[in-house]
Amino acid sequence: MQGPLLLPALVFLLSLFGAVIQKTKASCPQCPENASCVNNTYCTCDPGYASGSGQKLFTFPLEICKAVETRVITDNCSEERQTFNLNVQMNSMDIHCRDVIQGDTQGPSAVAFISYSSLGNIINATFFEEMDEKDRLYLNSQVVSAAIGPKRNVSLSTPVMLTFQHVKINPRSKKVFCVYWESTEQGGQWSRDGCFLISMNKSHTMCNSTHLSSFAVLMALTSQEEDPVLTIITYVGLSLSLLCLLLAALTFLLCKAIQNTSTSLHLQLSLCLFLAHLLFLVGIDQTEPKVLCAIIAGALHYLYLAAFTWMLLESLHLFLTARNLTVVNYSSINRLMKWVMFPVGYGIPAVIVAISAASRPHLYGTTDRCWLHLDQGFIWGFLGPVCAIFSVNLVFFLLVFWILKRKLSSLNSEVSTIQNTRMLTFKATAQLFILGCTWCLGFLQVGPAARVMAYLFTIINSLQGFFIFLVYCLLSQQVQKQYRKWFREMVKSRSESETHTLSSKVGPDSKPSEGDVFPGQVKKKY
Q: Least C-beta-crowded within 10 Å: which of 75, 123, 152, 279?
């Protein structure tokens, strides 16, 4: 049975030898790994290994000694043997029993799992058909083959599960590819068709495939390394934003003179951004354990979506305020926003995250970041709502400016009304800049201007909390009055505290010394 099973391996070796330069040297120093010299002339594979050509003695320098495990099935599949597990050199394969027998109940059936120790040095990552010039690809596993009888590239009813041990433990790779060897007219190449990445940790990668062939794991170290300057800007900017967002939230909570629907919107936006930025700073790199990383990624997904939803509500409220410019505090607007803002602000992001987590929970968290995975378009669970909100905010922005332009052309010279209109215009501009423009720059990080856009995006977005505190607190006349009032009260309280401390030191029972002068007494000079 072993002869027919080794036939696919022989065909595989012949196809790959057409893709490399063959140099024949008959000498023992050329013996491959897991082989030894015989009579100073021939090479032979060590016990437990077999040559790719099936010959016991060989001189071909590109011959390979491979580890082989076979499993023979002499009867039909039973409930106890639904899946077979084959292990070779810390690599394993799980295959369903019915795929092994292939519906043939006459006679025994067999499956072979083969591992090649040094074949990856010959058919390396340069044979990958989708190789990107920006990436440095390398093979991070042994090449393995699977065969059922004499057949090769067999289609399966149930995908086969392959587990590869890494050659380099704990790889810091941005991209991981599960690939199989595809024979071509030019010899062969690595292809991803029908091979899918399931999971990866520091030591192993798990893949599945819809067919049997020869497989391996390719990893890519991207040339776009992290910019330390951008990292410093991010951490410094987000730290400043956290401080400003905390001060803004305290202002919105404690300053009773400005508390209204608009202030409630500012408060919820500040809280969401504060929690999102704080979690980003402390948890974005916590990739182990995986469960914790997935929870952090899901929480960041929810908090940033909630922040963008509150940005949308801010734009909606600004539009309604501009449309009813003469009745800014009109009760119907406030009642509408109070009914809508909390279910929308926190409910819609919860629904989106729940659907994403229920459909593809394994795509929360990547190998180097606790964020959404790029595979299967999962990132669009975040980018889709963000793009929609940005588009709606842009529409609201244009409508508000159109309304304000009409108001300005019809207003008289009443100073208070003009100031009110100008303030709304300034806030509309600031709102687009703060809540929309920063993330738009993130989408523009392509082409030759990518580095410039990356710096602009990082600087502006990391200072978003500072801009919110500047626009809604420091530039607000009501807040400025409240800050001055609090400052005077603090100074007065401190002055009274110092006076009380001084009087307590003197004490009511203390007696004056000879040099002390009592009230109304004039000290005489001699």
A: 75
- pTM of the shown model: 0.56
pLDDT at 517: 43
Q: How far apart are CA 283 and CA 334, in angstroms?
A: 37
Contacts of 43 (CB under 8 A, 6+ apart): 28, 30, 31, 32, 35, 36, 37, 57, 58, 59, 63
Question: Which value, to the nearest 10 degrees, does the dihedral of the CA atoms of residues 377, 343, 320, 441 take?
Answer: -30
Q: Which residue has the tokens 């024949």?
A: 24
Task: Give the single-character DSSP code of 400.
Answer: H
Rounded to whole angstroms, the Cα distance separating 293 from 282 reads: 12
Among 104, 143, 102, which Cα is nearest to 124's?
A: 143
Q: Which residues pair with 232 in a beta bridge?
A: none
At residue 491, the pLDDT reads 80
Going from N- to C-terminal start, the domains of the chain cover 85-222, 228-482
Judged by phi (left if over 0) then psi (alpha if -120 to 50, else beta), residue 85 lies in beta
The rounded distance, in Å, linking the Cα atoms of 452 and 449 is: 5
Fold of 228-482: Rhopdopsin 7-helix transmembrane proteins (1.20.1070)
User: 57-102 pLDDT, tens per residue?
Assistant: 887 766 777 777 777 776 667 666 678 888 887 888 888 887 777 6
Q: CA-to-CA distance for 255 and 482, rounded, in angstroms?
A: 7
**Over the stretch 428-468, which tens digit does the pLDDT of each residue have?**
566 666 666 667 776 666 556 667 777 777 777 777 788 88
Query: 85-222: which CATH topology?
Result: Chondroitinase Ac; Chain A, domain 3 (2.60.220)
- Rounded (5°) CA angle 454-457-462: 125
- Whole-angstrom CA distances from 153 to 8, 235, 329, 518 are 9, 51, 72, 111
- Report in angstroms the alpha-carbon separations of 497 from 36, 316, 494: 91, 48, 5
Q: Fold identical between 85-222 and 228-482?
A: no
Neighbours of 111 (CB within 10 A): 25
**Burial status of residue 295 (CB atoms within 10 A of its CB: 0-12, 13-18, 19 or more):** middle
Closest CA to 112 of 172, 72, 153: 72
Establish whether the linkage from the previous residue to 289 is cis, with ω within 30° of 0.
yes
Using only C-alpha atoms, the chain has a radius of gyration, in whole angstroms, of: 36
Handedness of CA 372, 374, 378, 384 (dihedral sign): positive
What averages of pLDDT result for each successive group of 10 residues across the chain (526 residues)? 48 45 47 79 78 75 74 68 80 83 66 77 73 68 79 70 83 75 79 84 86 79 62 86 90 81 86 92 84 91 92 83 61 69 90 92 82 82 88 83 71 54 62 65 64 76 80 80 82 72 58 46 45
187: left (phi > 0), else alpha (psi -120 to 50), else beta?
left
Q: What is the DSSP string of 17-78?
A: HTTS-------GGG--TTEEEETTTEEEEPTTEEETTS-SSB--TT--EEEEEEEEE-S---
Q: Which residue has the tokens 């990552």?
A: 125
